[in-house]
Design brief:
By secondary structure, this protein is α+β, with helices and mostly antiparallel strands. The chain has one helix at 34-42, and strands at 20-24, 50-51, 62-64. It has a single domain (1-68), classed as Ubiquitin-like (UB roll), CATH 3.10.20.
């Protein structure tokens, strides 16, 4: 909604890991699935980060993208 550009290379398929962001509060997001965990681990992405292409938002959140 805020027109924040999100980096990606896999067209939202959840495989590249380039779209990782910090999302707070986590309580307003979907639970992390096994694909997201595997991609984060394979790409040395912080455990508390989320992949924007896989996380779903169910309330107000603050998003920070470390690469911008």
């Amino acid at each position: 909604m805020n027109s924040i550009p999100i980096a990606y290379a896999c067209d939202g398929e959840g495989i590249c890991g380039k779209c990782w962001v910090w999302v707070e509060p986590q309580k307003n997001t979907s639970k992390e699935g096994s694909l997201e965990r595997r991609v984060k681990q394979a790409n040395s992405i912080p455990v508390t980060a989320r992949l924007s292409c896989l996380v779903r938002v169910f309330g107000e959140v603050k998003v920070r993208a470390p690469y911008w």
